[in-house]
Amino acid sequence: MELGKLNILIIEDDEDIANRLQKELEAFNFTTKIVKKYNEAKSLIFRADSEFDLYLIDVQLPDGDGFSLIQGIKRKNDDAIVIIMSGYINNKILEKSHKSECFEVIQKPFSIKNDVIPIIKKCIKNIRLKKENLHLNSQILHISKLAALGELSATVIHDIRGPLTMIQLTCEDIKDDLKHLETKDIDCVNSHMLQINKACSKINKLVDHLRNYSRKDAKEEEEEYKDIEEVIENSLFLVKQKIRSLVVKVEIKIEDKYRLAQLLCYPNKFEQVLMNLMSNACDAMRTASKKELQIRIYVESQTFNISISDTGEGIPEDIMPKIFDSFFTTKPKGEGTGLGLSIVKNIVKEHAGDLVLASVVGEGTTFTIKLPISRIKIKPNNGDETPSPRAA
């Protein structure tokens, strides 16, 4: 990150101090903005188009306490860096600064050149590394998606060929029917057209899966409620070829109450999490005599749980502590990046959840996504039928 890209918000009611800070900081090619009142700062912080890397905040503002702005800043951007400025420093201020995760506390009067600038320079490396890490995670996530698309090619060819053949044969039937069309034959033609529409719908569904999965996540992607069964089905689709080739039996168990559950999530990211865990589970069973992939959805202790279990070799105890580390992999050279589970856990954390591992050598492994129950809502059931657990 270039120095000129560092955006600084100065929240200071003393006009002389604010102007001197701005003048000195802009001499270093920083971009700065000054606000002098609490309410003005609060309004700016919550504006969608305002984005700052660093905040210089005076503790005592004429219409409010500078510390109370920090919670809003962190809620909008947890990586933002805050420096507190105060005319006096005592244990209470230091304790508040620590709890608010402030980078530094500076006592007035201060030398901008000798006190402020050196601290800001320390911040630059911290900000740059966080931004680069965010960018790299985004790129890695997208690359892993594109790599998975290669595995999908065989599935797409297999599943598209059937509907297309149906369309071709049905069209030939329609041509024959039209040659001798009478009123009584209209129902027959309509039946053929219905078959065409069904086949086309299947193809459209395949295309939608691929398009949604392969698109690059946009920064502005918003959380939305998605049917949990749909999310599971979409994720299974993405590993369908691996399931077929390894002859893995798939079982989905959902507590009856939560069959109509909707999950508040970033759909594209969350499906990536499930796909990654399902794919890893299949890989773990390549040489297993028993190949069963179980997906279980249940609630326990006010936590909404999605568990993915395999009957593979299991993970040795000495490896389990490293399993979520970046660049760590148990796969043979050339078959894994070691980045998957690290990214998966970060995405689960974005959803205010946790990813828990349980494994027994020789029996199998279970990864459980634990989410707050508050992220779930139940759709009203308009039908009487309750589906039973399925195996695929």
* Helix/strand structural class: alpha/beta
- Kindly report how far apart the N and C termini lie: 49 Å
Give me the oligomer status.
Answer: single chain
Number of strands: 16
Topology order in helix (H) and strand (E) letters: EHEHEEEHEHEHHEHHEEHEEHEEEE
Shape: elongated
The whole-number mean of residue pLDDT values reads 80
Largest sheet: 6 strands, mixed
Rg estimate, integer Å: 28 Å
Put simply, the count of helices is 10
What fraction strand?
A: 15-25%
Strand order of the largest sheet: 13-14-12-11-9-16
Helical fraction: 40-55%
Low-confidence stretches: 384-389
Write up this protein.
The chain has 392 residues and is of the alpha/beta class. Helix content is 46%, strand content 21%. The strands form 4 sheets. The chain has a 6-stranded mixed sheet with strand order 13-14-12-11-9-16. Helix 1 links the parallel strand 1 and strand 2. Helix 5 runs antiparallel to helix 6, helix 7 crosses helix 9 and helix 9 packs antiparallel against helix 10.
Question: What is this structure, in a nutshell?
Answer:
The chain is 46% helix and 21% strand.
Distinctive features:
392 residues; elongated; 21% strand; five-stranded parallel β-sheet; 10 helices
Itemize the secondary structure elements and their pairings.
Elements lengths: L6 E5 L3 H13 L3 E5 L2 H8 L8 E5 L1 E2 L2 E2 L4 H7 L4 E6 L4 H9 L4 E4 L4 H68 L6 H29 L9 E4 H10 L2 H7 L2 E6 L6 E5 L1 H18 L7 E9 L2 E7 L30 H11 L3 E7 L3 E9 L3 E3 L11 E2 L1
Parallel strand pairs: 1-2, 1-3, 3-6, 6-7, 9-11
Antiparallel strand pairs: 4-5, 8-10, 9-16, 10-15, 11-12, 12-14, 13-14
